[in-house]
Amino acid sequence: RVVGVACGSAHTVVATSEGAAFSFGWGHFGQLGIGSTVNALSPQPITSLAHCKVVRVACGSAHSVCATDEGRVLTWGWGVNGQLGLGDDATMLLPALVKRLEGVYVGEIACGLAHTVAISQVDQGVYTWGWDEYGQLGHGG
């Protein structure tokens, strides 16, 4: 049973009640998280997430994000503006843990074109990263 869905420019990621994640659509930047840049015409399991229970998914234009039942955040896909939160601008073909959020229990995630937002479930702290040309990260000028 699907319990969460998110759409990017031309890709979709879903979370199931069993904690699995599936993706399909355009894969040019690795945003499907299946280890390649191929397109997928039907849902593909994101097998590298099998070790955790996915409870939330979000998509930007060409990147994807998930939150686990342990409050951890993983990202993958297009990273040219730092929207993956991995400390660089690399593009990732497989989900990678956002280490800067270690110790933060994330309950909500969201994405814009090339930025990502996470909200702590404990203190409602808001964490943002990625493209900030128009102030969309809220960091001030």
From TrEMBL:
RCC repeat intervals: 19-70, 71-122
Keywords, in A-Z order: Repeat
InterPro entries attached to this UniProt entry: RCC1/BLIP-II, Reg_chr_condens, Ub_ligase/GEF_domain
Name of the molecule in the record: Uncharacterized protein
